[in-house]
């Protein structure tokens, strides 16, 4: 059992570390001596700490600061959202509270702020690395939610579809 | 006993003498102290250049980083590749179609990158198939072979694919002259002189890279070896080295090295273009195929063509000229200014360098030395800029840096010689390990060489790697050429027998509109399933089409029943991922072609003909998530005529009977 749980921990660790990629985007390795501060390894601990302090678990991380929801459901958007979700989401998410590959969608719009949902579905990797709720979820699902390359419109429509699923009329 | 001992000592001594004598000097300590630092690319850092290396008899193109020598990818081109399903999936099979049917391999010798204004532009790499003559275009946005065109009238497509300075044409000269496909080829072989002809192909390249065999030039029968396009002032001309100007047809190693000088054939392709426009080319009836990959349907098509336009070089006097070149010329390289044409005779003890300006005035002033089977021969001295004296043994190929230097590989003496193009003075030499063929300097055959590195592609790898059986790894070596002296910084093993290679700055590749994944909305594959709700199984007679999706970590459907013996099952798998770096695999027990590797957003088809009744597991072959092992399913195969209905499901067990 102990062995199992350590394997479990290791798996999580591996997966979390997997998520950090495409960091040094501009570097083309001029084979010169680098200043130590530009090495990601040396700054990782401190930046991770500051990131954790800065991280807002209600908003998440991404470009969405404020998402305006209508008082009523936008039926047209929800229909579009259903289509997009059919291509990119529902292979892994059920509309009920049943877990498939990922958690069920039921009540997600009451559990999470719209900004959080928009940020998470368009920018999952950094949030999987930082968000305590997502990290807890990852321990259950064990599959990192893939970035499905949602456009802004697709993401917003899917959010409306989630609201419809949660009974907004 | 004593005798035996002495004998064996003698054998060892002679043996080691032989060994050392064929080794270049300093094989042990040719690497200087900071070589490792110069070749080192730290984890997480990118290489500076991408090196596109021919895979020789493997038929593939390999991509290496410079200066690290790290292998990034093997791109299947002319040979089937079970790893990627190339030539095995239904969509890729047409890419390897030829007028001889499906040809599953070839011998890829040279790579040439597309250029704009004579500079490497990072769009495409062209590659030749030697055996069944073809030219391929590899798209560097996708790192996939996008197009393959077969060449008629040709045997051994060696002298290709070399491009003009704006990628107007990809040019290919035949290695073996043969009777044209449009004449009766059933002739005695010893009628070579009368009946065998050379054909040089000019393949037009469109804006999107699409290739079209524009015309061919028919020449007297010789062997064309290599080629390079003029540039700058010599733009509009193409130069081909030719050997076997003796026109022998047997024991060529003796009979094709009789003459002191063979030729470099200079072709005025702008003039040839005018003649084609003026209707001077004959339409000949031939058969060749043209295969294209469609990025939206993820599917190749193969089209058979039946005509080619042929210009006669002996009838049209001002398109081809022969320049005498000592002796059995192999390489034919044009310097960045376009003024100097370097010929390298495999058997010559010097390197002749010709001047484009002098060639032009020789042609204007008719300084000819008679003709060769109807083509004017320019006087050697009239076209000659000068000779590099005693450069080494067996000069083959020359590349250039940005500082007016040339680098020539010496096959026999296993070394690279650096010399000054203008003064023709030898400046430096370094050993290679061993028997170097082609060289590559990033941009080294363009108007703008990047210099910095030179890579030598070697034929023999003695003493670099353990003999893992009789065969060693093929090898390449990287030299730092940024200083006055060339310095070896790294060896790296290669696939196949590496021939030519090209290199471009990594930044150019990254910024060329590179694909990260296929957008699922733009997937126009006729059997795509865009989302699990489109997953289904459709029977059409004995053909069963499975529209299947894959995502971390399952297939849909993952249970299929009602397949019967005698069915042909087509698994059309759509990878629903929209995140780069997550391909999914697909394999099924007993599949006798290959697995599939499906890129994010792509649809790929595996044909499977069950050979027995039973339950057949299928699974993903590419580790995709913590639940990768769980990404699997079952197919039930029933006897022919069975009444098991066709059903499929995911997440639902069918009711027990």
Structure description:
- The complex is a heterodimer of chains A (169) and B (657).
- By secondary structure, chain A is an all-alpha fold.
- Chain A is 53% helix and 0% strand.
- Chain A is globular, with a radius of gyration of 19 Å.
- The model of chain A is unreliable at 4-24 and 31-49 (pLDDT under 50).
- The N and C termini of chain B lie far apart (84 Å).
- With 657 residues, chain B is mainly β.
- The chains are: A mainly alpha (169), B mainly beta (657).
Question: Taking Cα atoms only, what radius of gyration of chain B do you get, to the nearest Å?
Answer: 28 Å
Shape of chain B: globular
Could you tell me the mean pLDDT of chain A? 80
Counting helices, strands and paired strands, the structural category of chain B is mainly beta
Q: Mind sketching the topology for me?
A:
The complex is a heterodimer of chains A (169) and B (657).
Chain A: H1 2-18, H2 40-54, H3 75-88, H4 108-111, H5 114-122, H6 124-130, H7 132-141, H8 152-165
Chain B: H1 2-22, H2 35-39, E1 49-54, E2 61-66, E3 71-75, E4 97-98, E5 101-102, E6 108-116, E7 119-129, E8 134-139, E9 144-150, E10 159-163, E11 169-173, H3 192-195, E12 197-205, E13 211-220, E14 223-229, E15 237-243, H4 252-255, E16 261-268, H5 269-277, E17 282-294, E18 299-312, E19 320-326, E20 329-334, E21 340-345, E22 350-355, H6 356-364, E23 368-372, E24 375-378, H7 380-383, E25 384-389, E26 395-400, E27 405-410, E28 415-420, E29 426-431, E30 436-440, E31 453-458, E32 474-480, E33 487-494, E34 501-505, H8 506-510, E35 536-540, E36 543-551, E37 554-556, E38 559-564, E39 568-575, E40 584-588, E41 596-598, E42 603-608, E43 614-619, E44 632-638, E45 647-649
Parallel strand pairs in B: 13-18, 36-39, 38-44
Antiparallel strand pairs in B: 1-2, 1-34, 2-3, 4-5, 6-7, 7-8, 8-9, 9-17, 10-11, 11-12, 12-13, 14-15, 15-16, 16-19, 17-18, 20-21, 21-22, 22-25, 23-24, 26-27, 27-28, 28-29, 30-31, 31-32, 32-33, 35-36, 36-37, 38-45, 39-42, 40-41, 40-43, 43-44
């Amino acid at each position: 059992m102990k062995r199992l749980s350590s394997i479990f921990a290791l798996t999580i660790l591996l997966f979390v570390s997997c998520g950090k990629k495409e960091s040094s985007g501009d570097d083309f390795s001029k084979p010169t001596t680098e200043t130590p501060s530009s090495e990601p390894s040396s700054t990782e601990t401190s930046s991770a700490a500051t990131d954790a302090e800065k991280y807002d678990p209600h908003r998440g991380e991404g470009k969405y600061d404020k998402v305006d929801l209508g008082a009523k459901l936008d039926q047209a958007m929800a229909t579009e959202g259903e289509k997009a979700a059919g291509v990119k989401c529902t292979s892994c998410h059920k509309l009920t509270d049943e877990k498939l590959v990922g958690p069920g969608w039921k009540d997600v719009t009451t559990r999470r702020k719209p900004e959080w949902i928009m940020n998470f579905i368009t920018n999952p990797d950094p949030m999987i690395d930082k968000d305590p709720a997502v990290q807890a979820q990852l321990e259950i699902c064990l599959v990192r939610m893939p970035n499905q390359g949602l456009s802004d419109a697709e993401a917003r429509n899917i959010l409306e579809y989630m609201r419809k699923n949660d009974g907004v009329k | 006993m004593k005798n035996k001992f002495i004998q064996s000592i003698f054998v060892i001594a002679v043996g080691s003498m032989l060994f050392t004598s064929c080794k270049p000097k300093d094989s042990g300590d040719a690497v200087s102290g900071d070589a490792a630092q110069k070749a080192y690319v730290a984890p997480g850092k990118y290489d500076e250049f991408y090196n596109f290396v021919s895979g020789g008899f493997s038929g593939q193109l390999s991509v290496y980083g410079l200066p690290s020598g790290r292998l990034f990818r093997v791109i299947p081109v002319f040979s089937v590749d079970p790893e990627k399903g190339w030539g095995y999936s239904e969509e890729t099979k047409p890419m390897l179609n030829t007028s001889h049917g499906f040809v599953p391999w070839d011998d890829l010798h040279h790579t040439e990158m597309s250029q704009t204004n004579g500079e490497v532009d990072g769009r495409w790499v062209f590659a030749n198939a030697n055996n069944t003559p073809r030219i391929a275009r590899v798209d560097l946005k996708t790192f996939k072979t996008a197009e393959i065109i077969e060449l008629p009238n040709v045997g051994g497509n060696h002298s290709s694919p070399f491009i003009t300075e704006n990628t107007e044409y990809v040019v290919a000269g035949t290695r073996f002259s043969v009777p044209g496909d449009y004449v009766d080829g059933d002739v005695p072989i010893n009628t070579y002189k009368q009946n065998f002809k050379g054909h040089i192909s000019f393949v037009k390249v469109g804006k999107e890279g699409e290739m079209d065999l524009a015309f061919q030039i028919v020449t007297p029968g010789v062997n064309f070896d290599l080629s390079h396009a003029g540039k700058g002032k010599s733009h509009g001309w193409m130069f081909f080295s030719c050997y076997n100007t003796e026109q022998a047809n047997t024991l060529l190693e003796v009979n094709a090295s009789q003459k002191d000088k063979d030729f470099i054939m200079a072709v005025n392709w702008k003039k040839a273009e005018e003649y084609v426009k003026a209707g001077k080319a004959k339409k000949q009836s031939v058969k060749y195929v043209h295969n294209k990959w469609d990025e939206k349907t993820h599917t190749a098509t193969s089209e058979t063509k039946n005509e080619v336009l042929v210009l006669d070089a002996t009838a049209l006097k001002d398109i081809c000229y022969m320049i005498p070149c000592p002796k059995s010329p192999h390489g034919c390289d044009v310097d960045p200014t376009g003024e100097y044409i370097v010929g390298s005779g495999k058997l010559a003890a010097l390197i002749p360098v010709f001047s484009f300006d002098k060639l032009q005035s020789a042609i204007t002033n008719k300084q000819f030395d008679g003709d060769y089977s109807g083509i004017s021969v320019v006087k050697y001295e009239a076209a000659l800029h000068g000779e590099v004296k005693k450069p080494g043994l067996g000069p083959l190929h020359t590349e250039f840096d940005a500082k007016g230097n040339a680098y020539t590989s010496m096959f026999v003496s296993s070394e690279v010689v650096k010399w000054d193009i203008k003064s023709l003075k030898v400046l430096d030499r370094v050993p290679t390990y061993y028997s170097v063929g082609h060289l590559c300097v990033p941009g080294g055959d363009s108007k703008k060489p990047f210099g910095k590195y030179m890579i030598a592609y070697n034929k023999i790898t003695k003493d670099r790697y353990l003999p893992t059986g009789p065969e060693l790894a093929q090898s390449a070596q990287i030299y730092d050429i940024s200083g006055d002296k060339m310095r070896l910084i790294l060896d790296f093993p290669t696939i196949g027998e590496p021939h030519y290679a090209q290199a471009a700055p990594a930044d150019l590749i990254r910024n060329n509109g590179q694909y990260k994944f296929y957008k699922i909305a733009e997937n126009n594959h006729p059997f795509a399933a865009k989302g699990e709700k489109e997953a289904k199984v459709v029977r059409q007679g004995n053909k069963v089409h499975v529209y299947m999706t894959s995502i971390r970590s399952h297939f849909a459907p993952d249970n299929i029943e009602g397949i019967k013996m005698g069915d042909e099952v087509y698994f059309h798998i759509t990878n629903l991922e929209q995140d780069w770096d997550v391909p999914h695999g697909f394999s099924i027990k007993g599949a006798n072609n290959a697995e599939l590797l499906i890129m994010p957003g792509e649809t790929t088809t595996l044909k499977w003909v069950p050979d027995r009744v039973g339950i057949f597991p299928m699974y993903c072959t590419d580790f995709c998530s913590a639940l990768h092992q769980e990404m699997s399913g079952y197919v039930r195969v029933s006897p022919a005529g069975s009444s098991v209905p066709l059903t499929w499901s995911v997440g639902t067990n069918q009711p027990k009977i």
